[in-house]
Write a structure and sequence with these properties.
Two copies of one chain form a homodimer. Chain A contains 13 helices and 18 strands. Chain A is an alpha+beta fold. In chain A, the strands form four sheets. In chain A, strands 1, 2, 3, 6, 7, 8, 15, 16 and 17 form a nine-stranded mixed sheet that branches. A four-stranded antiparallel sheet of chain A has the order 11-13-9-14, with helices on one face. In chain A, strand 1 and strand 2 form a beta hairpin. Chain A starts with 7 loop residues before the first helix and ends in an 8-residue tail after the last helix. The relative contact order of chain A is 0.19. Chains A and B meet through strand 9, strand 10, helix 6, helix 8 and helix 9 of A and strand 9, strand 10, helix 6, helix 7 and helix 9 of B.
Chain lengths: 476, 476
Amino acid sequence: MSLNNAPKGEALAAALNVADAQFDSSLERLFALLRIPSISTDPAYDGDVKRAAAHVHDELESLGFNVTTHATPGHPMIVATWDKAAADGPRALFYGHYDVQPVDPLDLWDRDPFDPVVEARADGSKKIIARGAADDKGQIMTFIEACRACIEATGTLPISVTVLFEGEEESGSPSLPGFLDAHAADLTADVALVCDTNMWDHETPAITTRLRGLFGTEVVIKAADKDLHSGLFGGAARNPAHVLAQIIADLHDENGAVTLPGFYDGVAEVPDEVMAMWDTLNFSADDFLGAVGLSVPAGETGRTALEQMWSRPTLEVNGMTAGYTGQGFKTVLPAQASAKISCRLVKGQDPDAIRKSFEAFVKERLPADCTAEFHPHGSGPGIELDISGPAFGAAKQALTDEWPRPAAFTGVGGSIPIVGAFQDRLGLDSVLVGFGLADDQIHSPNEKYELESYRKGIRSWIRIMHAMSGVSPVAV
Amino acid sequence: MSLNNAPKGEALAAALNVADAQFDSSLERLFALLRIPSISTDPAYDGDVKRAAAHVHDELESLGFNVTTHATPGHPMIVATWDKAAADGPRALFYGHYDVQPVDPLDLWDRDPFDPVVEARADGSKKIIARGAADDKGQIMTFIEACRACIEATGTLPISVTVLFEGEEESGSPSLPGFLDAHAADLTADVALVCDTNMWDHETPAITTRLRGLFGTEVVIKAADKDLHSGLFGGAARNPAHVLAQIIADLHDENGAVTLPGFYDGVAEVPDEVMAMWDTLNFSADDFLGAVGLSVPAGETGRTALEQMWSRPTLEVNGMTAGYTGQGFKTVLPAQASAKISCRLVKGQDPDAIRKSFEAFVKERLPADCTAEFHPHGSGPGIELDISGPAFGAAKQALTDEWPRPAAFTGVGGSIPIVGAFQDRLGLDSVLVGFGLADDQIHSPNEKYELESYRKGIRSWIRIMHAMSGVSPVAV
């Protein structure tokens, strides 16, 4: 009873029905993947990482995908294509990762991290507990199971799909950039779908459209050629800790704005309609900051906390050290003082111009007998995806159809390197959709994924693929 | 042929002659003491420390001193008295220590640290090489051998003397304060002589009359209850490293002066005649700072480097730390930032008032969500000895008679705790005379003491004791 040539609405309904009907077996298949301890950073688990790669390879092949497992200097990369789409819609490149974080400290887990279980909570919710449940095995399985439901219901997918699964995401994706360059032709698509992010809350799905970039550097201020006795030299010798403190103090004005010349060049204000959308999110700065013991948004005055985190660039000291920092006291004048400083950047800022401005700012403030060294740590620009593109609109509507509350376009204050890599190396914008929640404890003991995230996540991808099938490839 | 009742000039000349005549055996006696590895901080050497105590006990007893070795919770304290002075002069309490620093790293020594030798250098100078040669065995032996020469020449000493030798100086003198309190009656004197300091240069003897005190504290600024992800929270969360940097920057003005309210209360200007004396020292800030890679006195503008180090108080960061300080980068917002800060104080400043002012200064600058903790490290006031006292004048003249250039009243930027302890617990001012040189490598490999320091040091004490014998006890 193929619905291959059925009208679109029927095909969607049929696929959703199949997904619901086989949800228990979808869960079993997720559990099978969760049982493989594919910890990519620990060589002791190399065999398990290979086993997880083979497992997802076989899953995709059994669905009818054309699958290739590519060896890399690290862990295998899996590319699977489905070229028999029902419609002449766009091709989507779906990205996720099958590796997981280490589980230490193991004694803080309530159970074996690789023996998944569904637990019911007092509030009626059910959680899938396991390492990788949310990051990222649960998320990639929402897509695989969505494909399964579509194929079982209609014999094919609503759009052409290329799947790219890597096994090194938790190790910094060392093989990915080279792989994208070498296989760009195999990865041609109209839009990327990345499933490694969160919902806004358990009722509100989200598409992440703003990601901040990064510029990081370590500055080392040196004065005397060794630590000096503060009795013997104190008063006459330059103290580089004071010099560094003055520079750090100078980097912000009394309104919390960064004083580096040119820092805000190219930074655009958030459009009114986006601000209006953020207002509907009912974000509580009190709750967000209260959870970590804070109460007052501390950044630029006159900005909401969401602006401060999503649309405004920052400059922060991540670490600093000088002189004696052990137990007790040592009355030395430090020979050097250093700080690790990074900027979160937004679209329009040029990381290299900011690096130059920072270095000039420091050098201008060096008194006699001081030198400065800089050790840049890597950088990438901020990203703001064009939400007016039809793929974004289609995904937003599809998510809104599935969940209790309308989907939101949100930001994240950090970076998701794959998004920049897809832009730079494949020329692809990413639609970032994920069903994680802020309390999923990813990277921590007792990681969980809401059973509802898994169920409605599968249904969401069915809806998104169907919605995108009506999008012209040119318009994406 | 006793000169017990000879005129003073003859007694002095006779003692100097004896000192010169027996200098080779004086050196042998110093070597015997240097061969005992009396490292007080290392329990493995406890037996050797005891042996060194017994050795100096026996030396003093053989000269005719009335000697008592007192057990302490740590190493023995030796008290020896000579009550048969030739004149009704004052009683001097002579202080030194028979323990030494550890010798690590041993491979940086050119020879066994406890196998003393005299080495001739290309410039014609001769150096006694051994651990403790300068700090402090060579120095205490100048006094013992001076006493020996006086006693052999005249049968007695020019003044009454109490000797106090401790064996814990290199371990922080834990037993000393309690011992001074318990034995104050046995230690009654008119003036203290402390032999643990340096000459100004190899031709210019020095009496140290200014010592800076210390106030130290660690300040810890806390904000969030844990380190935060700088992407997720950056911009909205308070960064305590910035708060600390601003506070440190605020602690000095653009002229290098400390901005703590009341900091300079009680600080006197150096009298013109003392400034004039310092000018004759031909101190070269270029040489002093150049030796450690610096060129410009960095403290208060309008002050000479000697003022900055001897007569002006300081406030310096000795250490600071926040966030991630290891290799590479970690983009955290630190939960806390801390600094170890100490002030070198001069006479007139109240350490407790400065502690209160510092704590208020920090608290006034704390933004919302920040707290400050303070961990004071101990404190002591600055000391300025009254150089108008006759004992100072007598010692200065005696030293001037012995050495190529006139003796100088100098300062040291650091503290010598025994001076404060003698003031507070025994009511005694200390005349600080020593024959070390800045390049003696005390506490370091290849410690040395100039042979000339030893020879003229012995002669200097003979002259000082004779000069002081003319000083009225009341006037001291």
